[in-house]
Amino acid sequence: MSRPKYRRLFLKTLLLALLPIAGGCQKSAPVEPIARNAAGAQEWTQYGGNNAARFSPLGDITRGNVKELEIAWTHRSGDFSDGSGDWSFTSLQVTPLMAGNTIYYCTPFGRVFALDAETGRERWVFDPQVRNKRSGLYPALCRGVSLWRGKEDNGAPCSSRILYGTRDAELIALDAETGQPCDDFGNKGRVALKEGIEGARHWEYYPTSPPYIIGDLAVIGAMVPDNERKDVPSGVVRAFDVRTGVMTWAWEPVSEGYRQRHRDELGNTRYHLGSPNVWAPISGDPKANLVFVPTGNPAPDLYGGDRDGIDFYGSSVVALDAASGEVRWHFQTVHHDVWDYDVAAQPTLIDLPGENGSGVRRGLAQATKMGHIFLLDRITGEPLYPVEERPVPQGGVPGEQLSPTQPFPTHPPPLHLPARLTRDSMDGFVWLDRLACQRELAKYRSDGIFTPPTLRGSVLYPATTGGINWGGVSIDPGKRVLYVNQMHMASVVQLIPRAEYDALNPSPGYPLEHYPMAGSPYGVRRFPLLSPLGAPCNPRPWGSLTAVDLVGGEVIWRRSLGTSRGQAPWPLWFETGSPNTGGPLVTAGGLLFIGATTDSYFRAFDTDTGEELWRSDLPFTANATPISYRTREGGRQFIVIAAGGHGWSEPGDLLIAFALPRDQ
């Protein structure tokens, strides 16, 4: 395959990733045993797997035989674009589902495919005929679909349903057996999600992550643009009846105090403009009847001087009552977020031992772009281990009202290192690169994490990309070990006074670097901190993979993730780590599978040591999260990953399944 030039790949990958592409304990019965090396069929029926933990109990593929993996089947949808035609450039971020013997997945063009899970043969395809083909700066993508099974799955039409959101801001319900729209859902299988949503241009409001199914409800949020203007559409989260499409409840991320202070602004509208949105994957706890919602920050993202408390629920994980949508608790990961550190990762459930090893603490792990893992009681929201409010840098721009402190977890401690960039920590491909990076760093304010945006320009490390992004974490529930990939890249954020920005009138040639933040006193310029040769100026690794003991809180191992292949200006590739977008999968066979990197490899690591045991060279980067399943007793364990690029890497449309040879 052809590969973009190294500097353009680094630069455009980073710029694209800046887009939205986020105590107390309760004791109960002992921890339930975790099934491992499970026999029989093993499905993958939810976006993040059981408990959103991205863990498979299958152990047929082991450390000893993983090198024998071969391609079992592939599927090509034909749905990809480099942005030069009718469609925006595409990013294949989808995590498929597998139920029965059928794979379900959506494409960036909004089509849904059902495939035979053993062979990859097409069973049906549904085309929603999307009209919103171009969307400004944002790639065309669909992270997944959701599956609902009725209590009486008797084979009647739509007794099991596939639900997903489209770029036309529609929630669609399909018969899982035939792919036909469910006529009893909304208007012939469709619900218009923009109904009741004010101020949305055609490309400014639509879901990118699958709805979360709990009982007979589909809970869904939507993407809204970052840093465009103050009055973007509301970030309301809504629940719809999966049978009828009728809205059951709506929760808008604003406090009652804000609602009362701004009640006159609503007029005939229902929701407040500019409130935090929920674009990342949602999760829940059906036994507790709770839905866990990761929120972004209000508009505009990088200046908050006139928010007046609209960010009360910003950059938080919020627990909602599944029946009513009422808030049960919320935990804020960033106070008054002016760094675009919205919560991108799906909240993940984990049961931990109670005090003195007795009972169980029903926990929730929330990963953040800062490389922080907050372990919370998922019933009360209280931290399971101390969280410290620590002083952070102050003195941003006139009009800003920064929080004097930010929450830092202590168990585990922050995973993104170092906490501050200095002259001595500058890197690059060669020593001349390092000298140039030292000169570049000296131009800007760099006081460590949470350095506020300034007129001079401030170093943002980790960048808006993270740290940890929507790929989230994997947790082995038996070992109680968390695995996570991170990006280690620095960027510069520079606020520009309104009159100066408007006079600048940035040309369409570099839209990813400038944002108007209309309605605020500032526009913004944002760009990665790179060397002349296109290398990140911050220290290596530029991508990492980490294993964390959730009980003890210690890092078990840490290693680089990715190479300089396709990035450095020479044919010798080094273990520098690389930008990475996508998430990991952990299996009972002691393996961690991950794509994500810019070097186009799909890898398997030993979960105990971090040693790389296997890799496959894919034709496109795999910026998605893999799944594993077995369709029947005696069948093969499959590992499936989507590989189709991430906008500025070469676009593609490949779904690829790996398995051991049939005679294994």
Q: What is the CA-atom radius of gyration, in angstroms?
A: 23 Å
Mean pLDDT: 91
Shape: globular
Low-confidence stretches: 1-33
Tell me the strand order in the biggest sheet.
1-32-33-34-35
Strand content: 25-35%
First-to-last CA distance: 32 Å
Class per helix and strand makeup: mainly beta
Secondary structure tally, helices: 5
Write the layout of secondary structure elements.
Elements: H1 6-17, E1 55-56, E2 70-76, E3 97-99, E4 102-106, E5 112-116, E6 122-126, E7 146-149, E8 160-165, E9 170-175, E10 190-192, E11 212-214, E12 217-220, E13 237-241, E14 247-251, H2 256-261, H3 263-266, E15 283-285, E16 290-294, E17 316-321, E18 327-332, E19 348-353, E20 360-367, E21 373-377, E22 387-391, E23 405-409, H4 431-441, E24 458-460, E25 473-476, E26 481-487, E27 491-497, H5 498-504, E28 514-515, E29 522-528, E30 543-549, E31 555-560, E32 585-587, E33 591-594, E34 601-606, E35 612-617, E36 627-629, E37 638-643, E38 654-659
Parallel strand pairs: 1-32
Antiparallel strand pairs: 2-38, 3-4, 4-5, 5-6, 7-8, 8-9, 9-10, 11-12, 12-13, 13-14, 15-16, 16-17, 17-18, 19-20, 20-21, 22-23, 24-27, 25-26, 26-30, 27-29, 28-29, 30-31, 32-33, 33-34, 34-35, 36-37, 37-38
